[in-house]
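The step that takes the researchers longest sounds almost clerical: writing a folded protein down as plain text. Below is the pair of lines this work produces for a single protein:

——
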Amino acid sequence: MPLKEAVGYVAAAYIVVFLIVLIYVAIMSVRVRRTERDLAELLQSAQARGEEAP
């Protein structure tokens, strides 16, 4: 395989891997925000019941 053709494949592979990592980070960010929101709701609920938060 000529070097110029191989460089194109390598660049395409790096782009695909970068996009997969970017999508993974975005999904994890959404999940962390959702978990933080749920935790805040639980803390607020516990405080409304008069229980002490840790």
